[in-house]
UniProtKB/TrEMBL annotation:
Keywords from the UniProt entry: Carbohydrate metabolism, Hydrolase, Polysaccharide degradation, Repeat, Signal
Domain of life assignment: Eukaryota
Protein name, as recorded: Anti-sigma-I factor RsgI6 isoform A
Any GO BP annotation: polysaccharide catabolic process
Keyword Nucleotidyltransferase: no
Domain GH10: 226-519
PROSITE patterns in the cross-refs: GH10_2 (PS51760)
Organism of origin: Glycine soja (Wild soybean)
PANTHER family found in the cross-reference section: ENDO-1,4-BETA-XYLANASE 5-RELATED, GLYCOSYL HYDROLASE
Molecular function via GO: endo-1,4-beta-xylanase activity
Length: 581
């Protein structure tokens, strides 16, 4: 960071740090910085939140506040343009770097960011939080390069109160780690929820004004405006399995709640062709018929699965040549069969963690599958569907940086120009407090692609706080501006949903089911009734969607009815309603 003077003493430095801490818990906590980039820049951008609770975040005061972690050495360096940054050099171990101790408070969420560079080539650099007892918690990672600065954005959810040490990891211990404009910003749960609510109001809803008057222009004080949603624009759905075909209670339960679904297993290759050459789409076809009859949109899941253990048994031992023939037939069969019937396809499932087809056909196997799927059906969104990209910061294979890199490889492949690509984040959260700071940071980074983002299989492992955590995760996704849909892999016990169970064997709601029903209502499905003020004006905030509107008044016998479409780009205009006695 550029500075006008040097040599400030430690007393001034720690006064600055204290003021930063106060600011971090006060003014800055009222807003959240969604800004992110995956571009490698010639100069780093400013520290988010002014560095938050980090001491000397931009190295205006040399390296004061920072210490060596492990072996090696640290120093300040100044670029030709006058930018100051810290360097870890003479490294012999991946964790040899610079560090700073901070105090975490239980229940708080901490968003982290830093600008990073390495002295040679490129390498994955992670931020690590060393907790009491020397446990290392990964808070995020980025693919850093030499010659330009890359943003690492992540975070940590504190389920303890204690000091932690922030440091960095690069597995190439021959390379120096450079860092600048480091930030750690705390938010308490109340602040975080307030930010979610404000974002929902801003990105999911629009204000609508009604002016109610008599035909003689007299304001009709006390008129009632009732808005009933017909169709909401945000897809919020639930996975479905074959039990829907025979269980009437399951059918009623599902249809009364959801208009979007994914078949959990019934379209997968191991379900439709258990024996080579003997295709059987009977169950998938029947389920699709049911969804059509009930106005439910379906995501296709999936064309291929890159996990070697989850191929049809007869596929696992095929030669590359025979596998190529079988895969081509599978692609043509399933995509052509359901052409025009689906809103999306998961094309090559989990191909950041697994590489069955890449091992057989080469590194472009996944990209080629997307190109072929697009050639066969241009309409559905084609998703890269992965797990642990936002759920778990410790999984290096599917971090947001690795996800974007894979996506770029697919989108640069011949034959995909014009393809409606989309980001599929499964959202299977294990036990323990969800790291919403990491989740939001990951969504921010993925949003830089400009592609639609869906949570495709959201679930929370059984635990005492399951319902609470499920609500936190669903709210986080719904409130993020880049998320365009949510499908949960959950349901009633009678249908075999034993992880995130929404209804018990008698179809009575579980606590998780209560959460889902509450959110369905909260996100716009319930009627809204408002009363005109002394000017005859009614202001209502409505979720994006189509509405039937009824206007009544105690002195007027004939109500007025109209249709209203509230869209993302809906501008606030007064809707004039004139009533005749």
């Amino acid at each position: 960071m550029k500075v006008a003077a040097e040599g400030c003493n430690l007393l001034l430095l720690f006064i600055t740090s204290y003021l930063s801490l106060i600011s971090g818990l006060g003014v800055h906590s009222l807003s959240y910085d969604h800004s992110a980039t995956t571009k490698c820049l010639a100069e780093p951008r400013r520290a988010q939140y002014g560095g938050g609770i980090i001491v000397n975040p931009g190295f205006d005061h040399n390296i004061e506040g920072w210490t060596v972690f492990g072996k090696g050495a640290i120093k300040e360096r100044i670029s030709n343009g006058g930018n100051r940054f810290i360097v870890a050099h003479n490294r012999t171990h991946p964790l040899d770097s610079f560090s700073q101790k901070v105090q975490l408070k239980k229940g708080m969420l901490y968003t982290f960011s830093a600008w990073l560079q390495v002295s040679e080539g490129s390498d994955t650099v992670s931020v690590m939080f060393k907790t009491k007892g020397s446990k290392m918690v990964r808070g995020g990672q980025v693919i850093a390069k030499h010659g330009c600065w890359t943003l690492l954005k992540g975070g940590i959810a504190a389920n303890f109160s204690s000091p932690v040490e922030i440091l960095f990891e690069s597995k190439n211990s021959n390379a120096e780690i450079w860092a600048d404009n480091i930030s750690l910003q705390p938010f308490n749960k109340k602040q975080w929820r307030s930010l979610q609510d404000a974002s929902i109001e801003r990105v999911r809803k629009r204000k609508v004004r009604f002016q109610i008057s008599h035909v003689n222009e007299t304001a009709l004080i006390g008129a009632k405006v009732i808005t009933r949603p017909i169709k909401l624009n945000f897809p919020f759905g639930c996975g479905m399995n074959h039990h829907i075909l025979t269980n009437k209670d399951y059918q009623s339960w599902f249809v009364s709640r959801f208009k979007f679904t994914t078949f959990t297993n019934e379209m997968k290759w191991y379900s439709t062709e258990k024996k080579q050459g003997e295709e059987n789409y009977t169950i998938a076809d029947a389920m699709l018929k049911f969804t059509k009859e009930n106005g439910i949109s379906v995501r296709g899941h999936n064309i291929f699965w890159d996990n070697p253990k989850l191929q049809p048994e007869w596929v696992k031992n095929l030669s590359p040549e025979k596998l190529g023939e079988a895969a081509a037939e599978r692609m043509k069969s399933v995509v052509s069969r359901y052409k025009g019937e689906l809103i999306a396809w998961d094309v090559m499932n989990e191909n950041l963690h697994f590489h069955f087809y890449e091992d057989k056909f080469g590194e472009n196997a996944s990209a080629a599958a997307y190109a072929t799927a697009y050639e066969l059906d241009q309409e559905p969104k084609l998703f890269l569907n992965e797990f642990n990209t936002i759920e778990y910061s410790g999984d290096e294979a599917s971090s947001p940086a690795k996800y974007i890199k894979k996506l770029q490889e697919i989108l640069s492949f011949p034959g995909v120009s014009g393809m409606s690509a989309a980001i599929g984040l499964q959202g299977h959260f294990a036990s323990g407090q969800p790291n919403l700071a990491y989740m939001r940071s990951g969504l921010d980074l993925l949003a830089t692609t400009g592609l639609p983002i869906w949570l495709t299989e959201a679930s929370v492992d059984p635990q005492p706080s399951q319902a609470e955590y499920l609500e936190e995760i669903l709210r986080e996704a719904y409130s993020h501006p880049a998320v365009e849909g949510i499908i949960m892999f959950s349901g009633p016990a009678q249908a075999g949903f034993n992880a995130t169970t929404l209804a018990d064997e008698t179809f009575k709601n579980t606590p998780a089911g209560d959460v889902v029903d509450k959110l369905i209502q909260e996100w716009g499905t319930r009627p809204n009734i408002a009363t005109a003020d002394n000017r005859g004006i009614v202001d209502i905030s409505l979720h994006h969607g189509d509405y039937d509107v009824t206007v009544t008044h105690p002195l007027i016998h004939s109500p007025i009815t109209l249709n209203l479409c509230v869209k993302k780009d809906f501008s606030l205009e007064t809707i004039h309603v004139k009533m005749r006695a």
